[in-house]
Design brief:
187 residues, Inorganic Pyrophosphatase, five-stranded mixed beta barrel, two-stranded antiparallel sheet, 2 helices, 9 strands, 17% helix, globular, inorganic diphosphatase, inorganic diphosphate phosphatase activity, hydrolase
Length: 187
């Protein structure tokens, strides 16, 4: 592939004009999948990291928010609630409604919980507190269990509301700018 001839979903897709209230998300893993796809940060392509070792599947579409950067050196993770699975590498508009505080092998790895902005079943949710408790338990259980058969520890601490999700998203946006956008281009 010739350098500069393709776009990179992390760096070239806009986060959205209304961020952090409404953001674009790139879906890596569709709802219902056992395949753990991951963004190759160098090439911008998806690669198959592994097939999950346990009998669980992703409960919702999972991906990242472009032009964000987190302490784990990755873009900000997002779990997007919607009725249908999305194809890997599709992108959509979503509304952050909360955050799941999570530790993955001792490293902070929070997940933004968002709803698809154009799905009539989910678009009217504005805060994670509005979701049924069962939905939150399903999400918690998936992340607590999905690495157990690999002898890896994941701890889900708490679910926090929309304001915390917006704060974390904004912080990740600012970190991305600090790291990747030259000072002269920030004006």
């Amino acid at each position: 592939m010739q350098k500069g001839s393709s776009s990179h979903p992390w760096h070239d897709l806009d986060i959205g004009a209304q961020a952090p209230d409404l953001v674009n998300a790139v879906i890596e893993i569709p709802r219902g999948s056992k395949v753990k796809y991951e963004l190759d940060k160098k090439t911008g392509l998806l690669y198959v990291d592994r097939v999950l070792y346990s009998s669980v599947v992703y409960p919702h579409n999972y991906g990242f928010i472009p032009r964000t950067y987190c302490p784990d050196h990755d873009p900000l993770d997002v779990l997007v609630l919607m009725q249908e699975p999305c194809a890997p590498f599709s992108f959509l508009r979503c509304k952050p409604i909360g955050v799941m505080e999570m530790m993955d092998q001792g490293e902070q790895d929070d997940k933004i919980i968002a709803v698809h902005a154009d799905d009539p079943e989910f678009r009217d949710f504005n805060d994670i507190s509005e979701l049924p408790q069962h939905r939150l338990q399903e999400i918690r259980r998936f992340f607590e269990d999905y690495k157990k058969n690999e002898n890896k520890e994941v701890v889900v601490n708490d679910f926090l509301g929309r304001e915390e999700a917006l704060r974390i998203t904004k912080e990740a946006m600012d970190s991305y700018i600090d790291l990747f956008v030259p000072k002269r281009a920030r004006a």
